[in-house]
Amino acid sequence: RAAAGPPAVAAAVPGAAWHPVEHADLRFVAPALWDTLLKLQPLAARKRRILADEPAHSQPAALAGLELDGVALEELGLTLTVPGHDDVPLREGGEDEALTAHNLDDYLALLPEVILVSSVKPLLEAFRRGFSKVLPIDCLRLLCVEEVLEMFGSDKGLLAWTPDQLLHAFKFEHGYTSNSRAARLLVEVLCDLPLDTKRKFLSFCTGCPRLPVGGLSALRPPMTVVKKESSRAPTEQQLPSVMTCANYLKLPDYPSAAVLRDRLLVALFEADGSFHLS
Predict the structure, then answer these.
(1) Which residues are catalytic?
(2) Phi and psi (nearest 5°) for 266?
(3) Residue 273: pLDDT band by 50, 70, 90 thresholds?
(4) How does 234-265 read in b/e, with b if 16+ C-beta sit within 10 Å?
(5) Least confident of 36-45, 107-116, 132-141, 144-153
(6) Spatial CA neighbour of 46 closest among 120, 115, 122, 101
(7) Burial (CB count <10 Å: 0-12, 13-18, 19+), residue 274
(8) Which of 40-49, 183-192, 240-249, 266-275 is least confident?
(9) Distance between CA atoms of 39 and 274, rounded to whole angstroms?
(10) Rounded distance between C-alpha atoms, residue 257 and residue 182, angstroms
């Protein structure tokens, strides 16, 4: 754990974690936010020194001089909300409260707590109730943290993707075989994607950004890739589509890996949440 930083917060579900949740854990969940908090922490320390050492009449000017990357705190346009989610206040009325030197310490303490604890506590409690209907939740104590992560949220399978592995895990039908050009291009493009985009692909095809224990080969039904044909537009302009409930990817026969990658990324990032009957 980082030696410096905000104090630890309580675990969201007591007994379900192996160590208390700490503010520094934000670096695993939201690395960019954690980097921003690290930049703000020295400003909070300077604020405390100003209040302790400066005479009262000069404190307002000194506090107004606190800047992040050359920009005054009040000019950052931040409010006491989760960045990117203006509808999630860090406290009551936070959406109408601008970040200033006066509430900086509150911001540093509340942001990790909301993201790591209060925002997920209802989800963890619902999981706890549901799991307990099948097995006592204390059964999880038989497992180490790594084993629980492997069951519920491991990325090891995604990081280890290889073209041959994907060719064996995917089922190619209706115009494609594992020897088809499109099949080869698809697995090469998928293996080169960054982790977050691989999760997007899984979510796009299956509705879940994670794989079950056993990886792609354990999907039921198996990931199926079929040839998508349409006379409405040239192949290069068509987007892949899916039947999420069946893990079924409909892929046009793109002429190159570059075109396939471009069309796939458009589908993953621009068509997120789109649902149509076909």
Answers:
(1) 245
(2) -60, -45
(3) low
(4) eeeebbbbbeeeebbbbbbbbeeeebbbebbe
(5) 144-153
(6) 101
(7) exposed
(8) 266-275
(9) 37
(10) 9
pLDDT category at 29 given cuts 50, 70, 90 is confident
Asked whether 242 and 204 are in contact (CB, 8 A), the reply is yes
Structure tokens at 225: 């890739």
Tell me if 143 sits within 8 A of 110, measured CB to CB: no
Q: What is the mean pLDDT of residues 85-105?
A: 92
On whether the pTM is more than 0.85, the answer is no
Q: In the beta sheet, which residues pair with residue 98?
A: 79
Nearest to 253, CA basis, from 271, 234, 267: 234
User: Which two structure tokens, joined as six digits, stand for 248?
Assistant: 């079924």
CB atoms within 10 A of CB 197: 17
Instruction: Please check whether residue 260 is in contact with residue 185, taking contact to mean a CB–CB distance below 8 angstroms.
Output: yes
User: What pLDDT is stored for residue 89 in this prediction?
Assistant: 93
